[in-house]
Write a structure and sequence with these properties.
Layout lengths: L2 E2 L4 E9 L3 E8 L5 E7 L1 H4 L2 H15 L9 E7 L2 E7 L3 E3 H8 L4 H20 L2 E2 L8 E4 L6 E2 L6 E2 L9 E3 L6 H4 L6 H17 L9 H10 E3 L10 H7 L10 H10 L1 H4 L15 E3 L34 E3 L46 H33 L35 E2 L2 E2 L13 E5 L6 E5 L2
Antiparallel strand pairs: 1-2, 2-3, 3-4, 4-6, 5-6, 7-9, 8-11, 9-10, 12-15, 13-14, 16-17, 18-19
Length: 472
Amino acid sequence: MLTVGAGRYELEAEIAKGAIGTVWRGRDTVTGQRVAVKQLRPEAAGQPDLVEAFLAEWRVLAGLHHRCIVRARELVRGGNTYALVLDLVNGQDLRRRLRTDGPLPPAVAADVVAQIADALAYLHGQGIVHGDVKPGNILVPVDGSAVRLTDFGVARRVSPGDAGRATHATPEYVAPEVIAGGPPSPASDVYALGIVLYELLCGRSPYRGGGVPEVLYRHASCVPVRPAGFPERVWPVILDCLALDPAARPSTGTLANRLRGLQAALDGLAPLPAVSADMVTWWPRAAEDTAPVTGAGRSALAPVSPVSGDSPGGSGSDLPIGVLPPPGTAPVPTVAPVSPGVRAAAAVPVPAEPFVPLPSLVEPAPDRRRGRRLMAALLGAAALVVVLAAVGAVLLLNSSGKPVQPGRPVAVTSPQPSSTGSSAPPSPGSSAPSGAVDGRPNGGTVPATKPDPTPTTGTIPGIGATLPTFAG
């Protein structure tokens, strides 16, 4: 059996495996307790940058003590071996839970996010930003105890020199200001937690679909769409967390209090149906409300997190986040220096054309202005039919000069509009378009009294043209 720490920790079974690290279920032979062992793979242990990132994770975790954060017990070093011994949480991460069971009940989702907000408030108070808040990094114990925030591989202490450092994050959860070149901050953790809350209630994150550049661009240029049945009182919380201005987002403490204040209203609500891949979950922002996505360029390095999960749609975990130029500019090359045998994130070229949803992956958002133009055209066509019918009746009466016989219905026919665009010709036997002649529906009965030949004037509603009419 494999062991680390001079034989103290036995590695019993592999829990997860990433590009540069593996997590094992282990046993402490001294205490008999079950533990989790996060081990740097041998090929990665030869790269100083990756080793330093692994040691930085230990330095962050070593001073943390919170019920909603996985506790680090020991750092094991020896030769080419680097391992973190952590508390073992017997349960699933939320990403797997969503895949197997679908969206959570609203009250449960609010409670889980409130607990993670508590953990983040503690972290931020220590001057630490997690930087990769997502369902895959939230563990739910089977015994019903507090959820745990894990994977501090990209966590960092807030410092003035952060602006020049490469940023690693999961594209579905990264804040617009980080994409634009800014360092992760407590506000960017809140943004990610807002995306997580949406996903726990709907079964998928709002900006998923397409390539990585498209997903990143939606954070700056789009807003999430509220699905049918989404709890009304939770939606303002989502929008506040996803505010473009980091200063407008709530603090983690405020967020936790707001969610706990909604518990009574959410109790008993059933989970929403999972949002399918062909449903619209985002909508373009107005141009004046779009966040900038320009900034000083940074080199894209290999992921520093020892364990990288896989996310659907090509937007994997802990990908290096480069700065996206505005649409229409030249591609920005990315560089990922790694040693043989270590899988690095693929370089992401930025297309020179504006980002658009891929038709095969995301249903195009409907154009409201097109619908208004179509409605205006239909109303105009209907009004034109009314005008033509009125003119035809006037000409018929003037040409005959005879009174209409009592009880004889007068059928008013009008020319059919030409078949253009998407309009279909009327089927045989269908009635004429709705309208009115002398205040009566088309096909109505003319009264027996002889009409007054004295013309008056009237305005056809919706047209504005003044035409002669006759009193009935």
